[in-house]
């Protein structure tokens, strides 16, 4: 199926709101518009003032519309992993059609059966992802449509989150005059962007260091297995600089961005720059190394907390290592500092799109890629959650700004390449040859299943 079309990603961050418009043609994603606005009404990744957040979203969307020459009507939005719970779900139905051939309606019905969960009143289902289908006892099936059977089962992964966070996100987006195409859990989307196939299969860790919080996510067997959120991020680094150097928050942010190093060993002790100090008429000279020591102290504290949680589940033994993302990941020397703290291979993911070569754009790009790669079966399963009966019908993210400037129509994404059961077994066989891999994989299967 052709998955060309226009996609709009929305990243509602603590310090900035980003909107990216991309056109997908023959598998190639081309960014055609970007909007970025300073956040308002957010605290630690969560919307706390719907009106202020909606106004900031509107401003970012207008910027993206002007650059892309389109009118944006729908967005795919990322939500933080705060208090996310990951559970297994399972549904089973009898195939309804007299011919016993499985169709879209059967897939939707079995997904609905899998969604029958007893949830606390303060929680809501965010997403459900089919892991496999079972037809009359034959498992490992990714797409059962067209097959003949009497009994259809679906084994999937259910993600639930706090109703307050989800409601506020939806309300702010709708108040900004937009429709929500899909709400995607940020770490789940990031895995499709920053990790390659092998890293998703054998296991990797994504650490997203944003302005208001730091999120660690463990990806294994192409699934999101674990998340941890530390309520510290780039804003804490800025506040530390402001307090220690007795300068304003605005100056502290500029110092961090222009002169900051995450690893004090890389900063020069003889390189100095002026700092406007509150209560003094003349600036004070501060060395790069002194500033780096302030930044390193806070980052070391954040990384140490994350490491403690990852050690509890032995995630640092996974062969894929760590990928850093988020705006703070752009600070020079952060890779070296993280490697020292975590004791494993660390790299920073930077998008290769022109004008977006900064890790702060990762999430907005990630939600676009995630939605574009969503298989048709996954869309049908999703429709059981959203109640959208148009699961297999093209949906438009944008409309032309004028009659003379017609935007490409949104086509439904084609099915993403999924490993077959035989390929999965071959991957496991390759893993058996690696020292200690059986122990790691066996642990995760026992821990999460």
Describe this structure in words.
This protein is of the alpha+beta class. The chain has a domain at 234-300: ATPase, nucleotide binding domain (Nucleotidyltransferase, domain 5, 2-Layer Sandwich), CATH 3.30.420. 36% of the residues lie in helices and 28% in strands. It has helices spanning 50-68, 104-114, 163-175, 186-194, 197-202, 234-245, 249-259, 288-312, 334-342, 362-372, 376-386, 421-432, 437-448; strands spanning 5-12, 16-25, 28-38, 42-43, 46-47, 70-72, 74-79, 85-94, 123-135, 138-141, 151-162, 179-185, 204-209, 214-220, 223-230, 272-275, 284-287, 322-325, 346-348, 398-400. Strands 3-2-1-7-12 form a five-stranded mixed sheet, sandwiched between helices. A five-stranded mixed sheet has the order 15-14-13-18-19, sandwiched between helices. The chain has a four-stranded antiparallel sheet with strand order 8-11-9-10. The longest helix has 25 residues, at 288-312. It starts with a strand and ends with a helix. 45% of the residues are buried. Residues 389-397 and 399-437 have low confidence and may be disordered. Residues 402-413 have a biased composition (Polar residues). InterPro entries: ATPase_NBD, Cell_div_FtsA, FtsA/MreB, FtsA_C, SHS2_FtsA. This is Cell division protein FtsA. Self-interacts. Interacts with FtsZ.
């Amino acid at each position: 199926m052709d998955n060309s079309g226009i996609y709009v990603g929305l990243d509602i961050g603590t310090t900035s709101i980003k909107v990216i418009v991309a056109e997908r043609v023959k598998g190639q994603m081309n960014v055609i518009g970007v909007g970025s606005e300073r956040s308002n009404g957010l605290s630690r990744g969560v919307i706390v003032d719907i009106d202020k957040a909606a106004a900031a979203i509107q401003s970012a969307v207008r910027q993206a519309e002007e650059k892309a020459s389109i009118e944006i009507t729908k967005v795919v939005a990322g939500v933080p992993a705060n208090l996310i719970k990951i559970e297994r779900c399972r549904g089973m139905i009898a195939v309804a059609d007299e011919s016993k051939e499985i169709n879209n309606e059967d897939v939707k019905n079995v997904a609905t059966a899998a969604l029958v969960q007893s949830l606390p009143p303060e929680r809501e289902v965010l997403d459900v992802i089919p892991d496999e289908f079972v037809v009359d006892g034959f498992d490992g099936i990714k797409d059962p449509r067209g097959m003949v059977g009497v009994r259809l089962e679906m084994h999937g992964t259910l993600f639930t989150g706090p109703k307050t966070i989800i409601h506020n996100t939806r309300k702010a987006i709708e108040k900004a005059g937009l429709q929500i195409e899909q709400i995607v859990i940020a770490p789940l989307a990031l895995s499709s962007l920053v990790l390659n196939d092998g890293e998703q299969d054998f296991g990797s860790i994504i650490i997203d260091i944003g302005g208001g919080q730091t999120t660690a996510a463990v990806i294994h067997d192409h699934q999101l297995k674990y998340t941890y959120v530390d309520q510290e991020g780039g804003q804490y680094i800025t506040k530390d600089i402001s307090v220690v150097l007795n300068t304003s928050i605005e100056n502290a942010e500029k110092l961090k961005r222009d002169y900051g190093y995450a690893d004090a060993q890389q900063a020069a002790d003889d390189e100095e720059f002026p700092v406007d100090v509150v209560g003094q008429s003349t600036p004070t000279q501060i060395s790069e190394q002194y500033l780096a020591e302030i930044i390193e102290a806070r980052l070391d504290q954040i990384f140490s907390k994350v490491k403690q949680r990852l050690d509890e589940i032995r995630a640092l033994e996974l062969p894929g290592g760590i990928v850093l993302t988020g705006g703070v990941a752009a600070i020079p020397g952060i890779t070296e500092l993280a490697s020292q703290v975590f004791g494993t291979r660390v790299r920073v993911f930077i998008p290769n799109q022109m004008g977006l070569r900064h890790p702060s754009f990762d999430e907005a790009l990630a939600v676009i890629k995630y939605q574009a790669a969503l298989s048709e079966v996954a869309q049908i399963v999703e429709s059981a959650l959203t109640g959208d009966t148009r699961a297999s019908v093209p949906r438009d993210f944008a409309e032309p700004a004028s009659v003379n400037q017609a935007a490409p129509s949104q086509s439904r994404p084609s099915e993403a390449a999924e490993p077959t059961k035989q390929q999965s077994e071959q991957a496991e066989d390759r893993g058996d040859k690696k020292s200690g891999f059986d122990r790691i994989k066996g642990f995760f299967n026992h821990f999460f299943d």
